[in-house]
Amino acid sequence: MCLGIPGELVRFVADQPDLALVEVSGVGRRINVALLADEQLQPGDWVLVHVGFALSKISETEAQAVLAYLEEMGQPYADELDALRTSNIG
């Protein structure tokens, strides 16, 4: 199963303007933010992450609500977090 998971933007990757580090439920990983180039993302912003790409900018309130719902899913969400821990872009 592939989920869209909220992540908080921590920082942009030096020398790779299309990549940023996000934190998803305590798991840090690099994602591609090129699809949101017009959003003027800043550290602290929340984005919806799917298969290594930021698909949309979302509010912190929405992010927290989605994370709470995902945590209730149990094992599918745990599996997705494990996949994030072992994956890498760039």
UniProtKB/TrEMBL annotation:
What Pfam families does this protein's entry cite?
HupF_HypC (PF01455)
Quote the SUPFAM superfamilies the UniProt record gives.
Answer: HupF/HypC-like
Q: Which family does it belong to?
A: Belongs to the HupF/HypC family.
Record's protein name: Hydrogenase assembly protein HupF
Phylogenetic classification of the source organism: Bacteria, Bacillati, Actinomycetota, Actinomycetes, Micromonosporales
Whichever gene encodes this chain, its name is hypC
